[in-house]
Design goal:
The protein is α/β, with parallel strands linked by helices and 285 residues long. The chain contains 10 helices and 11 strands.
């Protein structure tokens, strides 16, 4: 089954596992090196402790096993955060006082990461922005025998309005409050560098800057200060603006997509996450 994600994201859909497998095979055939999986979990399976995230037979884990079985060399990257599974809709554990508790969140994230690794994930990607989670996840993976599973840290994830279409599509917005206490202030440059260096020290294998185009200066600054590969996320709002303007005839979608991706590379990104990946792959052949 395919459910359109949002009118703002044409060409994107929430997919059942069989269709996700077919899409992953299409991506591999197009020369795309990897896919990132984000689950849309029904409300009945959500709880305050996000327990479904560590269910070995959960939607994420079943999807990983199916995609790995159906592809040859496709890198499968899994999202590690509480918000898809939390009844509060936050990336971390919410106390009765309405505050995010960093230390309560870490073991929950570790259980998720180990479960995803057990399912066959090549790389786990903590997107939660809790302090110390990279080191904690690395230790948990190693203790469980998954020393070969890599970590992509969302080391620089800004509290951005550009995430809107994705959150609407997955109904993943917080049930109360916002994410300003743990995601980064868009005006803060120094913290991006500091957090990237800390995550590198804790054992991350890749670092992420998110969003993309409004933060190319940050991509370059992080690139100049760390020795790890840098990924950048061309987020839903950025993609939707291209699609909306193209629909009105104001821009050429194909040309602008390739220009945006070229700018990421120019800024220093080694890896690009984009909803336009299949479009770009076809254009670049």
């Amino acid at each position: 089954m395919a459910t359109p994600m949002s009118p703002a994201m044409p060409g994107c859909a929430r997919l059942s596992i069989d269709l996700a497998v077919a899409k992953a095979q299409e991506a591999e055939a197009a020369g795309i090196c990897g896919v990132a999986i984000f689950p849309c979990v029904e409300d009945a399976k959500k709880c305050k402790f996000a327990e479904e995230g560590a269910n070995d037979d959960g939607l994420m884990q079943q999807s990983v096993r199916a995609i790995k079985a159906a592809t040859s060399n496709l890198l499968v990257i899994t999202d590690v955060a509480m918000d898809p599974y939390s009844s509060d809709g936050h990336d971390g554990f919410v106390t009765e006082a309405g505050e995010i508790c960093n230390d309560t969140t870490l073991p929950i994230l570790c259980k998720m990461a180990v479960s995803q690794a057990r399912a066959g994930a090549d790389m786990v990607a903590p997107s939660d922005m809790m302090d110390g989670r990279v080191g904690a996840i690395r230790a948990a993976l190693d203790a469980a025998g998954f020393t070969h599973v890599s970590i992509l840290s969302y080391s620089t994830k800004y509290c951005s309005a550009f995430y809107g279409p994705f959150r609407h599509a997955l109904d993943s917005a917080p049930r109360g409050g916002d994410k300003k206490t743990y995601q980064m202030d868009p005006g803060n440059r120094i913290e991006a560098i500091r957090e990237s260096l800390l995550d590198q020290q804790e054992g991350a294998d890749w670092l992420m800057v998110k969003p993309g185009l409004p933060y190319l200066d940050i991509v370059r600054e992080v690139r100049d200060r760390v020795h790890l590969p840098i990924a950048v996320y061309h987020v839903s709002g950025e993609y939707s603006m291209l699609r909306a303007a193209a629909k009105e005839g104001w821009i050429d979608y194909n040309a602008c997509l390739i220009e945006a991706l070229t700018c990421f590379r120019r800024a220093g990104a080694n890896v690009i996450f984009t909803y336009g990946a299949l479009d770009a792959a076809a254009l670049l052949k």
